[in-house]
Amino acid sequence: MATAAATPQPKRNWRAPREEQPFLFFLMNTPAALILLGLVLYPIVYSLYLSLHSYNLRQPGRFRFVGLDNYTNILGSEQFWTAAQVTVLFSVGSIALTLTLGTLLALLLNEKFPGRSILRAVMLIPWAIPPVVNGLIWQWILEGRYGLANGVLVSLGIFDTPHAWLSDYTTALPVLIVAQVWNHVPFVAIVVLAALQTVPEELHEAARIDGANVFQRFRHITFPWLSHALLLVLITQTMVALRTFDIIYVLTGGGPGKSTTVLAWLTYVTTFNFLDFGRGSAYAYILALTTLALSIVYIRVLWKRGELAR
C-alpha cells in the first residue's frame, strides 16, 4: 500500500508580531500615566513641599520656607516621643498577636476535619468588615453601662460592677489592640494558609521517618518555608498598625489622656484640629520613613532565610 509523502508543514511563528509603533504606544499610554502621576505623585511631592514650610490656616499670611524646622521641632518635642511610645506598644502588641493567632488558625485550617470549608468561610467575616464598622461593633461590646462584655462578666460574677473599658487609662490601649487583631487575623491566616499548601509533603514524610516530632518539623521545615509569606504579612501589618486611625477615632479619640494617642492620631489632630498643615505633613513623612526603614530591615532579615529553605 502506497503511503502519501509527508508534506512539509509551514513553520508556525508563535511569537506575537512586534509592532513598530513607538509613537502610538506612547500616545495611548500617556493619559493613564498622567492620571497616575496626578493622583499619586503630586500629593506626595506637595506634602513634602508643605512639610518644609510654615503653613497654618489660622495664620494664612505667614506661609514661608522653614527648611527642616518642622522635623527638628517634632523630634525635639515630648509630645512626639510620648505618641511614639504608644505607637510602639500598639504596633508590637497588635502585630505579635495578629501573626501568632493568624498562623495558628492557618495551621488548624490546613488540617482535614469535618466542617473545615465552613470554618474557612466564617473566618473571613471580620476581615470583610470595614474598620469604622469594626470600631462601632467593639464600641457596643465595650460600652460602660450596657455593653455586652460587662453584661457577661457581671452575670458570671467576675466583676461586681460594670467596667469603663474605653475611658480607663489602663484598659483603653489593650482593648484597642484586641479590636485591631480581631479585624486583621483573617488576612494573615489566608496568606499563611496559601503558603502552607505549597510545602512539599515529601519533606514532612522524610522528617517523620527520621523521627522528628511535630515541633521539630514546624521549626525546621514549615517555618522556614513560610518566611516569604510571613515577610509579606509582617510588612503589611506594620504599615497598618503604624497608620491605624479609624478604630481610634471611633473608640477612644486618642484618650483618655494620651493613653491611645498614636502618631497617626497626632498627625490628624495637628493637621485638621490645629490646621497646621506644615507640621502635620512632617508628621506624615516621619511615619512613612519609619515604615520604609522597618520594611527594609524585615526584607534583609527574612528574605534570605526563605531562599535557603528552598
Describe this structure in words.
The chain is mostly helical and 310 residues long. Helices cover 69% and strands 1% of the residues. It contains 14 helices and two strands. A two-stranded antiparallel sheet has the order 1-2. α1 packs across α14, α8 runs antiparallel to α11 and α11 runs antiparallel to α14. The longest helix has 33 residues. The N and C termini lie far apart (58 Å).
Helix/strand class: mainly alpha
Q: Please, what is the average pLDDT?
A: 85
Portion of residues in beta strands equals under 5%
> Which word captures the global form?
globular
Instruction: State Rg.
Output: 27 Å
Output the strand order for the largest sheet: 1-2
Major sheet, described briefly? 2 strands, antiparallel
Order of helices and strands: HEEHHHHHHHHHHHHH
Low-confidence stretches: 1-5
End-to-end CA span:
58 Å
Number of helices, counting only DSSP H or I runs of 4 residues or more: 14
Helix percentage: 55-70%
Counted beta strands = 2
Give a brief outline of the structure.
The chain is mainly alpha-helical and 310 residues long. Helix content is 69%, strand content 1%.
